[in-house]
Amino acid sequence: MPIGVRVAATSANLGPGFDAMGLALDWYDEVTLTPGPTLVVEVEGEGAERVAQDERHLVVSTIRRGLAAFGHPDPGMAFTLRCHNRIPHSRGMGSSAAAIAAGYGLAWQLAHPGQDFDLAAICDLASDDEGHPDNAAAAVYGGAVLAWTRSGATDQSELGTVTGVAHLRLDPGIRARVFIPQFELPTAQARQVLPDALPRPQVIAQASRAALLVHALAGDPDLLHEATFDWLHQNQRGALMPRTLDLLHRLRGAGVAAVVSGAGPTVLALGTTEQLAAADAVDRAGFEMHELAVGRGLRAW
């Protein structure tokens, strides 16, 4: 019988929470798997004409790793995989984290039919694949998360013990707007321009804003603009995405709590409906805007 998963887009960093904070968005990919005699990969929507449709497909390779990790007797089993992709690729909205979470979700269902997902185990594996837990944790658990690698955890030898996740409280009035450009920016390229160190005053400022962001999200949206300042990664990536940085500065100049979504080039704005309305007066030519609710975590369907 076919099995399926639904997984959300995510936005990482949220300004000062670099590689640690993530938010699931109400924008989903859906993937189904049917066991069969040969491997068949069918993709519609985002990336349909570009992604591999064989063992190199990210969901397929993740399923293989998941089947082995979860103790399935046949990690090399054949199946038909159908992907309905809605999450934009290479735009800072967590498309790779969604694919990885989907792959491990499907592998779990094959290895443990009828059992609820072991979200901690899936999050550990997905975070290890991603190299950082912010997008992975948000995709797996949904909502807003603060994620970290536990002290002393260096490998995946014991599932469920590597990634720490705290679920952040969200003021019910907070929504998100994403401003998505047509151009792409690979995450690996965006990470290459980051500094290895910051001056002490900037480190202090970054830490204080990250702490303030937790408070602002939980129930003080008036502080979101102040809480989303960043000194570590956004301006440094500006040369790679000048139009993104220009829109970011114009939104912030209008009082909107705007940040680069993940590695970019999408811009994310957070706030109440009234606060986000200030963005209406900002020229966003070249960017497609969507207002979104907070997304849910990994679901079987």
Properties at a glance:
301 residues, Ribosomal Protein S5, domain 2, 2 domains, 7-stranded mixed sheet, 4-stranded antiparallel sheet, 11 strands, globular
SSE order and pairing:
Elements: E1 3-12, E2 21-35, E3 40-45, H1 58-69, E4 79-85, H2 95-111, H3 119-130, H4 134-141, E5 144-149, E6 163-168, E7 175-181, H5 187-191, H6 200-219, H7 224-227, H8 242-253, E8 257-260, E9 267-271, H9 273-276, E10 287-292, E11 299-300
Parallel strand pairs: 3-4
Antiparallel strand pairs: 1-2, 1-11, 2-4, 2-5, 5-6, 7-9, 7-10, 8-9
Summed up:
With 301 residues, this protein is an alpha+beta fold. Helices cover 31% and strands 25% of the residues.
How does this structure look, described?
It contains 9 helices and 11 strands. With 301 residues, it is an alpha+beta fold. The protein folds into 2 domains: 3-169 and 296-300, Ribosomal Protein S5, domain 2, CATH 3.30.230.10; 175-292, GHMP kinase, C-terminal domain (Alpha-Beta Plaits). Strand 1 and strand 2 form a beta hairpin. The longest helix is centred in the last third of the chain and has 20 residues, at 200-219. The mean pLDDT is 95.
